[in-house]
Amino acid sequence: MTISSDRSPAVDVSVPKTYEVRTYGCQMNVHDSERLSGLLEEAGYVRAPEGSDGDADVVVFNTCAVRENADNRLYGNLGRLAPKKASRPGMQIAVGGCLAQKDQDTIVKKAPWVDVVFGTHNIGKLPILLERARVQEEAQVEIAESLEAFPSTLPTRRESAYAAWVSISVGCNNTCTFCIVPALRGKEKDRRTGDILAEIEALVAEGVSEITLLGQNVNAYGSDIGDREAFSKLLRACGKIEGLERVRFTSPHPRDFTDDVIAAMAETPNVMPQLHMPLQSGSDTVLKAMRRSYRQERFLGIIEKVRAAMPDAAISTDIIVGFPGETEEDFEQTMHTVREARFTNAFTFQYSKRPGTPAATMEGQIPKEVVQARYERLVALQEEISWDENKKQVGRTLELMVAEGEGRKDGSTHRLSGRAPDNRLVHFTKPDEEVRPGDVVTVEITYAAPHHLLAEGPVLNVRRTRAGDAWEKRNAAEAAKPAGVLLGLPKIGVPEPLPAATGGCAAH
């Protein structure tokens, strides 16, 4: 259906409507959800208070399709909202993201109380589709087959005042047999370097001090123009932006991880000594079946080069256990690779069928109990390695960027939490002087656990930053809002390399 204008419709601000966005999946979805929130706020909606649990006027599900039970999870949540919607005239429910792109019309057939279904390529249309559904009193399903606008060009409501995602590309050109992302996100498309740097400079001007470059296959950046060194050039350009203290990126692919990227990381002071490098399997046989274009030797060679250039680098990974056809010998090759690589941490997953992928119909599907046993062995090994690697940090003096919401026990322990340059989580003693998220503190590490470090002594130095100023200003502005339009305090924190909820569709 054609509409006369693509401008976002205005909501009657005399009675502000509230919204809630529920996000599932990888960092790309987190990034998209910030844009969905920004679009809704630009259209006049206000964020529902924390814990509203479906009581908002508009509830948006930003879905993921990489796990086998993704649809069950969505329809279960939609089912729980059905009675609320029936009792609240005017309430609307929208479903977007990868599962929406995949299932399209199926969603409104299974859940006819859904008002809007939109895909991964047209998130900018959400306010228009909500208004159209309201006026026409019928569900609106609009799935674009190609990208209409880079998400980063849309309005945004960032979850952090001092750390931000910056998308440099969308889509993926790989054909991994376990992954449905290329079918849902499309072929890789790169943003112009000038647009990326302009966005980063604007963020820094607002007080952001850390950015994470984001892409489905982030280090393949430049494939559109045939420049294999475009990503390393981008990293070096980030190093010239005054006020930008920390640069991270996720997720690279071993196939495209070249020596010039390692050199750029090592030689650019604000590019952090942290690398998330998905392994998936240590077996050459399984890697071939996965259509991963590297082998164990190549992978370990990259790790060796990174450590030679950056001895203190923290390296994390993704591993799939129980891929179809995986033998005990194949699994032992994964265990060997983990022992050799000495990952700081690993996101380990039991193989889950992705409907529509070649692996879903492969012969040799592994029995659940075998996969579970292998998974437990791998997790135990990685826990041991993670603890050993963290123990090497004891006695080191580190600069931490203070975070909020990262330490769940900070209230009871009277500690604060922050991230080291290599992204390790550190809980530290609260100093006498005020420190804010975004400020930088210097501490000495006194204790190591597998997944965090402690600095139990006094803070050695506090550096108040523009990022901390930005956090303080944002909190003051939110607190001053009238009660009727309260958005709820944001969850502030440095974007993590990968959400723990799934393998993440950016983890390739």
From TrEMBL:
<dbReference type="InterPro" id="IPR006463">
    <property type="entry name" value="MiaB_methiolase"/>
</dbReference>
<dbReference type="InterPro" id="IPR038135">
    <property type="entry name" value="Methylthiotransferase_N_sf"/>
</dbReference>
<feature type="binding site">
    <location>
        <position position="64"/>
    </location>
    <ligand>
        <name>[4Fe-4S] cluster 1</name>
    </ligand>
</feature>
<feature type="domain" description="TRAM">
    <location>
        <begin position="391"/>
        <end position="459"/>
    </location>
</feature>
<protein>
    <recommendedName>
        <fullName>tRNA-2-methylthio-N(6)-dimethylallyladenosine synthase</fullName>
        <ecNumber>2.8.4.3</ecNumber>
    </recommendedName>
</protein>
<feature type="binding site">
    <location>
        <position position="179"/>
    </location>
    <ligand>
        <name>[4Fe-4S] cluster 2</name>
    </ligand>
</feature>
<keyword id="KW-0963">Cytoplasm</keyword>
<dbReference type="Pfam" id="PF04055">
    <property type="entry name" value="Radical_SAM"/>
</dbReference>
<dbReference type="InterPro" id="IPR002792">
    <property type="entry name" value="TRAM_dom"/>
</dbReference>
<feature type="binding site">
    <location>
        <position position="172"/>
    </location>
    <ligand>
        <name>[4Fe-4S] cluster 2</name>
    </ligand>
</feature>
<dbReference type="InterPro" id="IPR020612">
    <property type="entry name" value="Methylthiotransferase_CS"/>
</dbReference>
<dbReference type="InterPro" id="IPR006638">
    <property type="entry name" value="Elp3/MiaA/NifB-like_rSAM"/>
</dbReference>
<feature type="binding site">
    <location>
        <position position="26"/>
    </location>
    <ligand>
        <name>[4Fe-4S] cluster 1</name>
    </ligand>
</feature>
<feature type="domain" description="Radical SAM core">
    <location>
        <begin position="158"/>
        <end position="389"/>
    </location>
</feature>
<dbReference type="InterPro" id="IPR005839">
    <property type="entry name" value="Methylthiotransferase"/>
</dbReference>
<keyword id="KW-0966">Cell projection</keyword>
<keyword id="KW-0819">tRNA processing</keyword>
<feature type="binding site">
    <location>
        <position position="176"/>
    </location>
    <ligand>
        <name>[4Fe-4S] cluster 2</name>
    </ligand>
</feature>
<keyword id="KW-0808">Transferase</keyword>
<keyword id="KW-0004">4Fe-4S</keyword>
<keyword id="KW-0479">Metal-binding</keyword>
<keyword id="KW-0408">Iron</keyword>
<dbReference type="InterPro" id="IPR013848">
    <property type="entry name" value="Methylthiotransferase_N"/>
</dbReference>
<dbReference type="InterPro" id="IPR023404">
    <property type="entry name" value="rSAM_horseshoe"/>
</dbReference>
<keyword id="KW-0282">Flagellum</keyword>
<feature type="domain" description="MTTase N-terminal">
    <location>
        <begin position="17"/>
        <end position="135"/>
    </location>
</feature>
<feature type="binding site">
    <location>
        <position position="98"/>
    </location>
    <ligand>
        <name>[4Fe-4S] cluster 1</name>
    </ligand>
</feature>
<keyword id="KW-0969">Cilium</keyword>
<dbReference type="GO" id="GO:0035597">
    <property type="term" value="F:tRNA-2-methylthio-N(6)-dimethylallyladenosine(37) synthase activity"/>
</dbReference>
<dbReference type="InterPro" id="IPR007197">
    <property type="entry name" value="rSAM"/>
</dbReference>
<comment type="subunit">
    <text>Monomer.</text>
</comment>
<comment type="function">
    <text>Catalyzes the methylthiolation of N6-(dimethylallyl)adenosine (i(6)A), leading to the formation of 2-methylthio-N6-(dimethylallyl)adenosine (ms(2)i(6)A) at position 37 in tRNAs that read codons beginning with uridine.</text>
</comment>
<comment type="similarity">
    <text>Belongs to the methylthiotransferase family. MiaB subfamily.</text>
</comment>
<keyword id="KW-0411">Iron-sulfur</keyword>
<dbReference type="Pfam" id="PF00919">
    <property type="entry name" value="UPF0004"/>
</dbReference>
<dbReference type="InterPro" id="IPR058240">
    <property type="entry name" value="rSAM_sf"/>
</dbReference>
<keyword id="KW-0949">S-adenosyl-L-methionine</keyword>
